[in-house]
Specification:
The protein has 474 residues and is α/β, with parallel strands linked by helices. Helices cover 50% and strands 9% of the residues. The radius of gyration is 23 Å and the shape is globular.
Length: 474
């Protein structure tokens, strides 16, 4: 029997996997090309009062588990004392046999706080005392947590109408980890939201200094703000879509639809899809112009519990997988861009794990030189960033494409303690490859395999996005 989360062989099923991880993956730096941490908190070098604040605040993964364990909402997002919230979380975690959050949590406790035990209701007090004593030390500010995690670059998630104030301040500061924006123009896409969309157009007009009174004005404003972000180091976008749609329309139709949206008038579903198609086609052209990568996250049905959405808002643990992700529209959308301006580098993420092979076959239709892996099947995401989900994504990609060109892991997190997810991913990656080697499916060429592992862990992402970082060859 293996020891609990032993550093030598945790998630590693073969000696080859152990060698690949410890000799090639373990020490590689991290480039976190998609996350939701706050640039303001990085600039301020925020300190955390206790482990509840840094660990439970905003973490809807943990909130979902606490609700499933019958914990009252007061101890989750409510006004209960921090110590009591932590106790409820510890009691919940002790029951989460087989859940990846159990493993992530203990990796974080080991890596940041040096805790080698097991967190549950009985040990909550000792972990509370240990973690809070560590958090009181000068080394446990946001910036120091990032640096001790061996992070070289962070891409935050930002709206084109954001001021980028904190990115500018960080860039002018002495912090030696690059923190750059990544554009997520979802508010400009959501024309179906009536007055909210109209208000956003007004705000974007003010920030960009361009009148957004029609679709041409919207495009001009977005383009102008993208140029500002590019100067700050932005090299990627991200879009949260229900699915990748393709409902083409004429320019006159789009202007008529935009006018209705700006007036907060009701729109048909077809009109919404036509606008979204036109918007996505436009920004894809911008990404070609700027050399950015386009990330498309889809396959999620959001805010399903309407009563709790009204109470807590979005991103609070009430989303689920959608099983409507039409491959024909995805392929037609990519083809429409290819025919007009050429495809940008594109990463496709579906929340539905059954889409892995579909994505791999669609992207194989659009690969082209000179970029290796120009179209990517993104890392197992959200409900899938666990051992099973990672194995399925890696295996499907290897079956249908070139695994060695994969850009690897991202945190997609709001927590400054989430970087051990990269370790978790690298262990799974090395375990999968090690098994193939020991099954005789690939030769035990450790020099070549080591290069592949290092590249997937870090180098490929640096090259793919064109970040201003030195690639690490050894």
């Amino acid at each position: 029997m293996k020891n609990f989360m032993d550093d030598q062989d945790f998630l590693l099923s073969t000696k080859t996997g152990e060698e690949l991880f410890h000799n090639f993956a373990e020490g590689m730096p991290i480039v976190d090309y998609h996350c939701h941490i706050s640039p303001k908190e990085i600039w301020e070098d925020k300190r955390f009062e206790n482990i509840t604040e840094v660990w439970l605040g905003g973490d809807h993964y943990k909130w979902r588990l606490m609700r499933a364990n019958g914990v009252d909402e007061r101890f989750i997002t409510g006004d209960a004392p921090a110590r009591e919230k932590f106790q409820k979380w510890a009691e919940t975690l002790g029951r989460c046999v087989g859940n990846p959050v159990f493993e992530w949590s203990h990796l974080e406790l080991k890596r940041y706080f040096g805790y080698e035990g097991v967190l549950n209701g009985k040990t909550a007090q000792e972990v509370w005392d240990l973690a809070n004593a560590k958090l009181a030390e000068a080394s446990f500010t946001c910036r120091n947590l990032i640096k001790q995690s061996n992070v070289r670059m962070i891409c935050t998630t930002d709206d084109p109408a954001d001021s980028f104030e904190w990115h500018k301040k960080i860039a002018a500061d002495s912090f030696d980890v690059q923190v750059v924006p990544a554009m997520r123009p979802d508010a400009a896409l959501r024309i179906e939201r009536g007055q909210e969309f109209a208000d956003y157009c007004k705000h974007l007009s003010e920030v960009a200094g361009v009148e957004v009174s029609d679709f041409e004005g919207m495009k001009a404003a977005i383009s102008k703000r993208y140029d500002v972000a590019h100067e700050l180091g932005c090299r990627a976008s991200d879009h949260a879509l229900d699915y990748v749609m393709y409902v083409p329309a004429t320019a006159d139709e789009i202007e008529a639809i935009f006018a209705k949206g700006l007036a907060a008038e009701p729109l048909t579903e077809e009109e919404v899809l036509k606008y979204k198609t036109a918007f996505m086609q436009f920004v894809a052209g911008e990404y070609v112009r700027l050399g950015w990568a386009m990330q498309l996250h889809f396959g999620c049905k959001r805010d399903n519990n309407r009563a709790m959405f009204a109470k807590l808002g979005p991103d609070t643990g009430y989303d689920c997988i959608s099983n409507y992700t039409p491959s024909d529209q995805l392929a037609d959308f990519l083809n429409s861009i290819q025919e007009t301006c050429g495809l940008p580098k594109t990463i496709l993420y579906s929340l539905n794990p059954i889409d892995n092979t579909m994505i791999d076959t669609v992207m194989g239709c659009f690969q082209e030189a000179p970029t290796a892996g120009k179209i990517q099947n993104g890392s197992a995401w959200w409900f899938n960033d666990n051992e099973v989900g990672m194995r399925e994504q890696l295996t499907a990609l290897a079956n249908e494409g070139v695994l060695g060109n994969f850009v690897g892991m991202l945190t997609d997190s709001r927590s400054f303690l989430s970087y051990p997810r990269h370790e978790y991913f690298r262990r799974v990656l090395c375990s999968v490859i090690g098994e193939w080697v020991e099954q005789g499916k690939y030769p035990a060429d450790m020099e070549l395999l080591g290069e592949v592992v290092r590249d997937i862990s870090y180098n490929n992402a640096v090259r793919y996005f064109g970040f201003d970082l030195d690639t690490v060859e050894a």
